[in-house]
Design brief:
About 35% of the residues lie in helices and about 20% in strands. With about 425 residues, it is an alpha/beta fold. Strand 13 and strand 14 form a beta hairpin.
């Protein structure tokens, strides 16, 4: 059984083909610059050289056709024809309140996804385009939606309702939803294994830090609070998103600069965060290099990001009533030893005793590492995320009729015997 996972962004399509019987990745890659010109595909097959091809993709349908073309190519491909693919799993960023778990896509489900696309205008429209494009190319196989928001639907009302007119929630669905759910699910299950405990007995803070950043407070194995809100704009400092700010600032700047709502939204989402502070960088490697060379704003960006991370650790430890572990994941979380060190500095009073040397030597996208000392009461792990594996296991379970909520479903990676591929 081969499962194709698709992750359609506004200008990209990531894909992974997974052989369920052999439990191994057959191929993976990405089509970049979809809809904006000069697009290309990067195609990776274990044991082969990486393949790159320039190919104009004016829309997601063309991009998915390109993926199919490469997967079935006589020289670069891995399948003889698409009949070998048993199902397709689609990442959907926003599912609103309706979806608390992954589901098979039918007309009603697709309509429901479309109905909440105004809550994630940068993400859901390309997700929808990807689903429709894949359905047109692969009409005879099941298509499954895996929602970023589903993992966080366990949050209590007092965590997800904003102190705003309540009718905004009733009329427009204004509430905290949270995102990166599959990543938080995966690394929290892996952390429970590393702790040698049942997930239902664990209090964990998971910190997904990439260009987008979100943190989750997990109590007794379920999400009870998370940093992103109605949209992925709220929360931590991100590559280009501002995260938490005084809500009066947008109105003030709109008046001062004569900006429209659309323009201020673009600034907050695309020109703020690390880019806004440094004026030139989003990649933390560039920021660190700039800081080492004496760039004051790069140093400031690092200090602001680390300080905000520290505050979330403290607040979520309070929200859960004490924690067993903190987990860093995603690109910066897995590779950015300096940012981890600055965020954890001074937290010994909370029981976090960092092994600085081990932390500095932990810069990998493959190994799971504990970066606290053996006697540290609270453990800190660096765990590479694997959202595509969550996609695949959800899809297979739905096909086999064994799927249930994440606390009762037995994911392979929640086992002590799990070996990372």
């Amino acid at each position: 059984m081969d499962i194709l996972a698709l992750n359609c962004g506004s200008s990209s399509v990531k894909y992974q083909l997974y052989d369920w019987q052999k439990k191994e990745i057959v191929a993976k890659g990405m089509v970049e610059r979809v809809t904006i010109g000069d697009s290309f595909i990067i195609h990776e097959v274990p044991g082969r050289d990486t393949y790159r091809e320039e190919y104009e993709c004016p829309d997601h349908k063309v991009a998915i056709h390109l993926i199919i073309k490469i997967l079935t190519d006589n020289h670069y491909g891995v399948v003889s024809d698409m009949s070998q693919i048993s199902a397709v799993g689609h990442r959907v960023v926003h599912g609103g309140e309706r979806f608390t778990c992954s589901v098979r896509i039918d007309e009603a489900v697709l309509d429901a996804i479309k109905a909440v696309q105004h809550l994630a205008p940068l993400h859901n429209p390309p997700n929808i385009s990807g689903i429709e494009a894949a359905q047109s190319v692969l009409p005879d196989v099941p298509h499954i939606a895996i929602f970023d928001t589903a993992f966080h639907q366990t949050m209590p009302e007092h965590a997800y309702i904003y102190p705003l007119p309540y009718e905004w929630y009733e009329k427009y669905g204004v509430r905290r939803y949270g995102f990166h759910g599959t990543s938080h699910l995966y690394v929290s299950k892996r952390a429970a294994v590393l702790l040698g405990k049942d997930p239902k007995e664990c209090n964990i803070i998971t910190m997904h830090i990439g260009n987008g950043v979100s943190h989750t407070a997990i109590k007794n194995g379920i999400s009870v609070d998370t940093s992103m809100g109605l949209t992925p704009l709220e929360g931590a400092v991100m590559g280009t998103r501002c995260g938490d700010i005084d809500p009066a600032i947008p109105a003030f700047i709109m008046e001062q600069e004569g900006l429209s709502p659309k323009e201020i939204d673009s600034v907050l989402n695309k020109k703020s965060g690390i880019l806004g502070i440094t004026g030139q960088f989003t990649d933390r490697r560039d920021v660190i290099e700039g800081a080492e060379e004496g760039d004051i704003r790069c140093r400031l960006a690092l200090d602001i990001e680390a300080y905000r991370l520290k505050k979330y650790i403290g607040s979520y430890a309070a929200a859960t009533g004490g924690i067993d572990a903190v987990v860093f994941t995603a690109g910066v979380g897995e590779m950015g030893w300096l940012i981890r060190e600055k965020a954890l500095e001074g937290l010994e009073f909370m029981g976090i005793i960092l092994d600085r040397e081990k932390n500095r030597n932990t810069m990998t996208r493959k190994a799971e590492t504990m970066i606290t000392t053996p006697d540290s009461p609270v453990k800190v792990f660096v765990i590479p995320t694997d959202e595509e594996l969550v996609f695949t296991e959800d899809v297979v379970a739905i096909l086999e009729g064994t799927y249930t909520d994440h606390m009762n479903f037995k994911y392979s990676f929640a086992s002590q015997d799990f070996q990372r591929g």
